[in-house]
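Please decode residue identities from the backbone states below.
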């Protein structure tokens, strides 16, 4: 796809992976609609990208973790055709489920699953009508197995991976590309917000961006970022789930209070 002059709607663009997707699409000449809660961070990024790449950037400060968030965002975007949708906003919590805050759990499921699904539903039909478009849904290596200590997060990312792969199959034969991106531990604000300390080294965000564009050019349904993560995702299907969960628990399950 030629991204020049296309409009990319990117959620979670105020930091981390979403911010680098914004830079990458701007560098390819795409105009941007950037969404997150932190208006100041979005404005600073918009100013940088307008100046550096001469693209148009609109910012929308919105909480995407409420049941009507998708609808609200679509209304704010209005009639601008969205050629590229990057469903990136998401968060996790590293807590035993018995200690999870119920409101946080609801927000996590709504943001990671419901808003992503609502936005896909809102923009896919018009993409199919134009026979052109790209949807990138950010899943995780957590999608490949249950993760004790991050039970809700891993389950939401399993949904994202399964949903996106199924849609990929539905759109074959059209000009629309749909891709689930599964990063492993990556150097962003994610682990601080989750309250987790990663036991592995953190990959640079640029790895996620590079794997995304390589996978899009091959029309893959999903991509795992990094050779070691790919081996682990594949390996998790070959051993009993109890053994896989033991390893995941050793990395993420907090001690009982
Ligand atoms: N970093 C990793 O190791 C890793 C690994 C696998 C998958 N992922 C996934 O990658 C995606 C991006 O995360 P990241 O690593 O870049 O973490 P991050 O630096 O914490 O970025 C998360 C982004 O999502 C936005 N966001 C969070 N809650 C939101 C809400 N309620 N409404 C609107 N926007 C919200 C944040 O913006 P505001 O705070 O301004 O709202 C921020 O822009 C997530 O889906 C995450 O699950 C990350």
């Amino acid at each position: 796809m030629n991204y020049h002059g296309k409009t990319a709607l990117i959620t979670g663009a105020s930091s981390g992976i979403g911010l680098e997707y914004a830079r990458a699409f701007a560098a390819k000449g795409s105009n941007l609609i950037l969404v997150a809660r932190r208006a100041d961070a979005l404005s600073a990024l918009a100013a940088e990208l307008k100046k550096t790449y001469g693209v148009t950037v609109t910012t929308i400060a919105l909480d995407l973790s409420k049941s009507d968030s998708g609808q609200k965002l679509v209304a704010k975007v209005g009639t601008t055709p969205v050629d590229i949708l990057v469903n990136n906003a998401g968060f996790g919590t590293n807590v035993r489920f018995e200690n999870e805050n119920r409101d946080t759990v609801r927000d996590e499921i709504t943001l990671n699953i419901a808003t992503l699904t609502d936005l896909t539903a809102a923009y896919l039909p018009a993409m199919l009508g134009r026979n052109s478009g790209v949807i990138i849904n950010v899943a995780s290596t957590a999608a490949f197995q249950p993760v004790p200590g991050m039970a809700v997060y891993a389950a939401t990312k399993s949904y994202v991976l399964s949903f996106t792969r199924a849609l990929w199959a539905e759109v074959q034969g059209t000009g629309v590309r749909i891709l689930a991106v599964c990063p492993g531990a990556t150097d962003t604000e994610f682990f601080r917000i989750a309250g987790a300390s990663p036991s592995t080294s953190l990959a640079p965000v640029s790895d996620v961006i590079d794997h995304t564009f390589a996978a899009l050019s091959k029309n893959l349904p999903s991509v795992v970022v990094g050779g070691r993560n790919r081996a682990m995702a594949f390996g998790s299907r070959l051993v009993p789930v109890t053994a896989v969960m033991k390893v995941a628990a050793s990395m993420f399950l907090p001690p009982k209070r």
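Observation: The chain has a mean pLDDT of 97.
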